[in-house]
Amino acid sequence: MSTTASTAAEAGASDRTGASRRSGTFYRGDPGMWSWVMHRITGVLTFFFLFVHVLDTALVRVSPNAYDEVIETYKSPVVNLLEVGLVGAVLYHALNGIRVILVDFWSKGAKYQRPMLWAIIGVWVVVMIPGTYFMLERTVSELFGGGH
Amino acid sequence: MTAVADTAHDTSQIPAPEGSVTVTVKILRFNPEVDDEPHWESYDVPALPTDRVLNLLFNIKNYVDGTLSFRRSCAHGICGSDAMQINGINRLACKVLVKDLLAKKGKQTTITVAPIKGLPTMKDLYVDMEPFFEAYRAVKPYLIAYGNEPTRERIQSQADRERFDDTTKCILCAACTSSCPVYWADGSYFGPAAIVNAHRFIFDSRDEGSEERLDILNDAEGVWRCRTTFNCTDACPRGIQVTKAIQEVKRALLFKRV
C-alpha cells in the first residue's frame, strides 16, 4: 500500500520565523456564515433563558410564596421586551435549525441554502410583526394609553 | 526604510493610460524582519476598469515599492498562487476586475488587499502554505487500487465520472480553506480543500481507497467540524460547490454509501 507518511513534524520544525496565523481583518462572508453566527448567538441567549427558567421554576419547590414573588417581578415592561426578544431568538433558532437539517440531509439543500435563508427570514418577519404587536399591546397601553 | 502607516507614497511614476481612474489600494503589509504586527498602507494608483487587482499590485511593486511581496505564477486563474483577501473576501487577484470594485459615481474607490487568513503570514501578501498542503496530503489524494494491474485502461461510465466532476476542478489555491471560520479558529481541521480532494477520489468508481479516506475524514478534525457556513463555496475561484461536496462526504459516512 502506498501511503505517504505525514510530514507534519518536518514542516513544524522548519525555519519559519516571524510568521503568525493572522486573524483580525473583517471577513465579509457568505450569508450562510452570518446565519451561523446568528444561530450561535440565539442559541446562547436561549440557553441563558432556560437557565433562569429552570432556577425560577425550581423555586416553587423551595417555597410557593418566593416563587410568586419572583414571578411578580417579571411583570415589568423591560421583561416584556425581553420576552419579545426571546420569542425572536427561539423562532430564528428553530427556523434556521430546519434549514441546517435540510442542508445536511436533503441532497439539494446546499444548492438552495440561500433561498432557504431568505425564506426563513421572511417567515420570521411575518410571524414577529403580529407577534410583537400582541405581546406588547398590553404593556404599551398601560404605559402610554390613558383609559383601558 | 521604516514606513509609517499614513506616509504618502509617491505613485506618480505609474503610467496612467487614458480612461483610468485613481483608486486607493490599501494593503496589509508585514515584514517579519522589521514589523511586530501587520499594518495597513495606502497607495493611490491609476487603474483601468479592465485592470485586474493583480495589475495594480504589480504597478505598486514595479513603480513604488519593490519590496511588496505576493505570489503569482500564471496570472490567469489556473495556477492558484495569488489567492488573497480582496475587499474582505477571498479571491484570486488575477481574476478580480477593477470595474467590479468601483465605488458609486463621485466616490473614491478603496480596494483593500490582505493575505488569506488562518495560515501563517510570511511577508506582506503571501502565507506559509505548508499546513494547507499537509492536510491535503493526509487525505491520500491519489488513485488507490489493489490487485493486479489491468491489461487495458480502467473503464468508467459517463455517469460515474459525473459524480466527482465538480471536485476535479480544484487548483489548491487555499481560498476556501482560509475562508472557513472553523479553520481560522483551529488549524487542525482538515479544511474544505482537503475534503474536496478526498471527495474527488472517494466517489471515483475506479478507486478502492474510499474506506481509508472516509476513516480519515471521520476523525474529530474531519468533516464533522464543518458548520455549513458556505464561505468556502462563495470563495472558490473555480466555482466548485465545496459545501455540497463536504455534505456528500458526511452523508457517505452516515449512510455507509459511496
Describe the strand arrangement of the main beta sheet of chain B, using strand numbers: 2-1-5-3-4
Biggest sheet character of chain B: 5 strands, mixed
In the CATH hierarchy, the architecture of chain A is Up-down Bundle
CATH superfamily grouping of chain A: Fumarate reductase/succinate dehydrogenase, transmembrane subunit
Q: Sheet bearing the most strands of chain A, described? A: none
| Tally of separate helices of chain B | 8
Number of helices of chain A: 5
Question: Can you walk me through this structure?
Answer:
The complex is a heterodimer of chains A (148) and B (258). Chain A is mostly helical and 148 residues long. Chain A has one domain (31-141): Fumarate reductase/succinate dehydrogenase, transmembrane subunit (3 helical TM bundles of succinate and fumarate reductases), CATH 1.20.1300. Chain A is built from five helices and one strand, in the order αβαααα. The longest helix of chain A is centred in the N-terminal third of the chain and has 32 residues, at 31-62. Chain A is extended. Residues 1-15 of chain A have low confidence and may be disordered. Chain B is an alpha+beta fold and 258 residues long. Chain B has two domains: 21-126, Beta-grasp domain (Ubiquitin-like (UB roll), Roll); 129-144 and 157-255, Alpha-helical ferredoxin (Fumarate Reductase Iron-sulfur Protein, Chain B, domain 2), CATH 1.10.1060.10. Chain B has eight helices and seven strands; from the N terminus they run E-E-H-E-E-E-E-E-H-H-H-H-H-H-H. In chain B, the strands form two sheets. In chain B, strands 2-1-5-3-4 form a five-stranded mixed sheet, with helices on one face. A two-stranded antiparallel ribbon of chain B has the order 6-7. The model of chain B has no long low-confidence stretch (mean pLDDT 93). The chains are: A mainly alpha (148), B alpha+beta (258).
